[in-house]
Amino acid sequence: MGKATGFLEYDQELPAKKDPRERVKDFKELYLPFENEKTREQASRCMDCGVPFCHSGCPLGNKIPDFNDAVYKEDWNQAYRILKTTNNFPEFTGRICPAPCEGSCVLGINQLPVAIEHIEKSIAEKAFDLGLEKPRIPEQQTENTIAIIGSGPAGLAAADSLNQAGHLVTVFERDPEIGGLLRFGIPDFKLEKWVVERRVDLLLKEGIAFKKNVNVGIDITIKELLSSFDAVLLCIGSTVPRDLPIPGRQLSGIHFAMDFLTQQNRKVSDLPQVSDPIQATGKNVVVIGGGDTGSDCVGTSNRQQAKSVTQIEILEKPPVHRGEMNPWPEWPMILRTSTSHEEGVARNWSLMTKAFVGSKGKLEGIKVVDVSFKDGKMSEKAGSERIIPCDLVLIAAGFLHPEKEGLMEKLKVDLDDRGNIKTNNFATSVKKVFAAGDARRGQSLVVWAIAEGRRAASEINAYLIEQR
């Protein structure tokens, strides 16, 4: 490494954030500028560990020590070239990835790990600033045509990879804008949409065709799809939310988290709104679910000036430090406080929702009970039932599988036991139809979706070569 003693000289330092009281006034990204020299110092903490476990921690297999060394030497061109060999969209992962690579960082055994996510974002933005990230027009074109259904991270990664291989790629999206989860599911304070639009504009210039407001299976028939393209890739996501079918579910004021987040994203982007939007303004909000989606609901509710925000999770409160059964380099199952949590929320663990309560068809609260876990079994604590008053409940309990009605139903692809698309090396049971991303592996991370898209593209490319 450029500076062998960097990890001894510098502690982990990340960009400062706007004051929580200020950042809740808008939906802008919340990190302040960070000096290049400080980023160099952070890159120098990479310790030439011999066996870089960060490689296996990253679903994309990013060559992290290599680009850290290049950043320390201020060779941004080399850092960019290294990063782009494994990651199509580092400007996305550098902002919204939970950084499993950092959980596997060798330095993380007894110190805070290398700030890999920040360094990745820095490389991506430098590449745009210096003109390194520019349209790459494929030198040779094949006659092969490929349809990709869904423009989320998996679909875009596959489209980019297949286009660079010289194939003619068309991406179909039923929403009015391209980006899928990146565009409509992730709040702007984590990923401003100009970042997505910048990448889409680049992909357009490279020759990828995007068809918006097209619901495949309805606006274009399955017969037309299969007859018009040499290969089809399904990247339709895992969009069916897990519900809470408990007493009172029919009361007004109970909504799925993604409906709430999507509406706000559309509003920020000045897209057409629904006639009766979900609003947290002036309300007592309860978010059911302790994951990233629940955290996004907390941040959005605070920006909509909710009266109060409470987040509940049925599982036990995670420990502050790794437990004996969660050793390095496994992903650390520890307590995490997001930027949204910093802005104000009452967090509760080991709490189960038993019923929604209200009158005249309107939500007034949720009935909850404390639970405990022993030997893998959950039990309720006697006498702990109570009601949390609320006007709005947002269910952020995860997603089950892709939508079966419509496209999947008409294609008649086989499904696995969880309701996801069943594949063999990304190929479905239907000839020349492939699948990738959450629709195939289940609800997961954006970085996994990008990895899935890249790998599916490789399999499709091999399939098309065989068909020649």
Summarize the model shown:
The protein is α/β, with parallel strands linked by helices. The protein is 34% helix and 16% strand. The protein folds into three domains: 6-129, Alpha-helical ferredoxin (Fumarate Reductase Iron-sulfur Protein, Chain B, domain 2, Orthogonal Bundle), CATH 1.10.1060; 145-239 and 400-467, FAD/NAD(P)-binding domain; 243-397, FAD/NAD(P)-binding domain.
Report on the architecture of this protein.
The structure is a single chain. With 468 residues, the protein is an alpha/beta fold. It has three domains: 6-129, Alpha-helical ferredoxin (Fumarate Reductase Iron-sulfur Protein, Chain B, domain 2); 145-239 and 400-467, FAD/NAD(P)-binding domain (3-Layer(bba) Sandwich); 243-397, FAD/NAD(P)-binding domain (3-Layer(bba) Sandwich). It is 34% helix and 16% strand. It has helices spanning 6-9, 20-23, 36-44, 53-57, 64-72, 76-84, 90-96, 100-103, 116-129, 153-164, 181-184, 193-205, 222-228, 257-268, 292-303, 339-342, 407-411, 438-441, 446-467; strands spanning 145-149, 168-172, 209-211, 231-234, 240-241, 254-256, 284-288, 308-312, 346-348, 351-359, 362-374, 377-380, 386-389, 392-395, 399-401, 433-435. The strands form four sheets. Strands 3-2-1-4-16 form a five-stranded parallel sheet, sandwiched between helices. The chain has a five-stranded parallel sheet with strand order 6-14-7-8-9. Strand 11 and strand 12 (377-380) form a beta hairpin. Helix 3 crosses helix 5 (64-72) and helix 5 (64-72) packs antiparallel against helix 6. The longest helix has 22 residues, at 446-467. The two termini are 46 Å apart. The mean pLDDT is 96.
